[in-house]
Amino acid sequence: LLVNLLTAFLAASVIGLFDRTIEHIVALAVLMPIVAGMGGNAGSQTMTVTVRALATRDLDIYNAARIIRRELGVGFINGVVFAALIGMVAGFWFRDPNLGGIIAAAMIINMFAAALAGILIPLVLDRFKVDPAVASAVFVTTVTDCVGFFAFLGLATWWFRVP
Length: 163
Fold this sequence. Notes:
The termini are far apart. 85% of the residues lie in helices and 0% in strands. It has helices at residues 2-16, 19-24, 27-55, 64-93, 97-127, 132-159.
């Protein structure tokens, strides 16, 4: 939990980089939990599958590359599907198709990052003889929170040209 607290400060510092953007576009604060939550859940699912495959010895050095590619493909496809859904909902909800496009792009980026973190973090921890079932979650969540917030708020800052 202490490590989780420290990593939460890292995610908060990413948000702090964009405080002026959030002041200008308050809707971003409303939508940020969606980007982080979806990324976190996607990363957790990939991580769970990876940890199980490591435990049952279905994942090893010989098939790791193939499984990594498969998980990245799934992450990208999930990103596109959920990007379309949340992009349309956000665009209608806030009557701003630009905002819908920004959250959609951020969702694709974060779902891909979630898949990457969800498979690579347990593999790296396992390689260093650290139990991935115990240690992976906090790192996967940190990656998806930081990447999600940075992608969403960074794209919004760039698109809306917030100083």
